[in-house]
Task: structure prediction
Amino acid sequence: MKLDTRCLSEGEPLVFRHSLDLSGLLFSGQRVFSVPIDIEGSLEGRANGLILKGTYRTVLSLVCDRCALLFSREHSGCLEAVLQDDPPQQDREDIVLLQNGVCDLDEIFTPAIILSLDTKNLCKPDCRGICVSCGQDLNRQSCICGPRPTDPRLEALRRLLQDGGDA
Ligand SMILES: [Zn+2]
Ligand SMILES: [Zn+2]
Result:
């Protein structure tokens, strides 16, 4: 969604509401944004430029890093940006440049939302995952392989012994 900031009158914030569709983006093969993202906020003229304040809210479709279960989780956040015409009056990193006074909300919100995603996703904080030996979902049922070694060095040794046994 594009907003023309040239029609903005001073002291009167421009309020916007938008539905951002990022369903085409894949993260590790997963359509995380299967639901459109609700965006709302305002644009207001200030001495140092236009101030954009916005919030976003959606439901993410995620795959658990431990048990590979598909689950959904609410995700929301906010952002603030200073918008200025090209060339900018100040040399600041957080300034978003306007093209002929037009502000593209999708271009501003999309990177902020992607950066706000967690790198680790667990279906629940204490997800027990899948047994590396037999593939049993340990959230549902324990398996006969016994307790899993927690020390990564022991785990490597176990794998080595297992590989040796197969050869
Ligand atoms: Zn899980
Ligand atoms: Zn097992």
